[in-house]
Amino acid sequence: MIELIKHGTTFDFMGKRKYVLTFSLIITLLSLYGIFYKMNYGVDFRGGAEIQTKFSKEIHLDTLRESLERGGFKGTSVQTIGEASDNEVLIKVQATEGQLNKITDDLTKALHTSFADNSAEIRKVDIVGPKAGSELRLSAVKAMFWAILSIMVYMAIRFDFRYAPGVMTSLLHDIIIVAGILALTGSEFSLHTVAALLSIIGYSVNDTVIVYDRIREHEVHGDQTKSLRQHINDAVNDTLSRTILTSFATLLVAASMYFFGGAALKDFFLAMSIGIIFGTYSSVYVAASTTLFVDDLMKNSKKSNASQVTA
Questions:
Q1: From start to end of 182-231, where are the E strands?
Q2: Scanning 9, 96, 197, 246, which has its CA 20 to 30 A from the CA of 119?
Q3: Of 205, 133, 196, 202, which is closest to residue 167 (Cα–Cα)?
Q4: What phi and psi values does residue 189 have, to the nearest 5 degrees?
Q5: Tens digit of pLDDT for each residue in 129-175?
Q6: pLDDT of the residue at 189
């Protein structure tokens, strides 16, 4: 394997954890503010109409978006369905409960007017009420919660109880920051975003498992006189080249899809790109630092119990 960082490096990652965790705390608080006050929910979560339309000729999505925006439709999202030659498009439009039927009619009229030379046939209309959107939003949160809980249980069994809280903390950290940045940048939060967040959970935990596995290897087979903090530093230094190469390659693909994959994929790959950056960072500074914190708590608890027994 190519080594960007030569073997035997001794960067003191844990020595800087207080400063880095302060940064994490600040950006997490900003992200929570964005989630609660700035989140731009899509039709799936907020309610609106989904209209499947077939055009007689090729239709450019950018032209369609511009036409809908000029027509005054808010929160619109368009994507192709099936093969490009089918000329079928799924249009999503946000609307309040009392306007759902009206906005569907208005959109149909607008399509027939704006694209008179490219007749639009309405194939299917699905209406998502605000209540259904709210329930779907709750289901998305539950899906992420159960994913994180299952991973935490696995890590406790696979490694040690000390490691489980670190995984949970780092995954929550990644999800909150990604969702918060999307909210603060005005990106739409849709089912595609939920899929991206679940993908980020998988990516982040994979990176964390590799670091944890090397930490345990150092603890079991390494110098027994070293502290857990030293073992963590050694493990992170050992996996540094692999982490940089893997993260860079994955980020390169995600960023390329963001810039060249089309508007329908932008929000998904924006979330993925942010998640790769913070997932890599959290595997070291959030997950490993939490494990170190839990280990210190357990040691202090044992000392306290031992002093009480002696007394």
A1: 188-189
A2: 96
A3: 205
A4: -100, 110
A5: 767 777 888 888 888 888 888 888 887 787 777 888 888 899 999 99
A6: 86
Which residues make beta-bridge pairs with 274? Answer: none
Asked if residue 102 lies in contact with residue 145, where contact means CB atoms within 8 angstroms, the answer is no
Q: How far, in Å, CA of 136 to CA of 149, rounded?
A: 20
Domains along the sequence of the chain with CATH: 14-40+132-303 (1.20.1640.10), 48-128 (3.30.70.2040)
Whether 120 contacts 53, CB under 8 Å: yes
- Determine the residue type at 39: M
Q: Is the dihedral of CA 304, 305, 307, 308 positive or negative?
A: positive
- Three-state secondary-structure class, residue 49: strand
Helices within 239-262 (DSSP H only): 240-260
Q: What is the C-alpha to C-alpha distance for residues 89 and 52, in angstroms, rounded to an integer? A: 6
Model confidence at 253, in pLDDT bands (50, 70, 90)? very high
- Number of CB atoms found within 10 A of residue 56's CB: 12
Mean pLDDT lowest among 50-54, 76-80, 94-98, 214-218: 94-98
Does the pTM exceed 0.90? no
Number of helices and strands in the chain (H, E): 11, 6
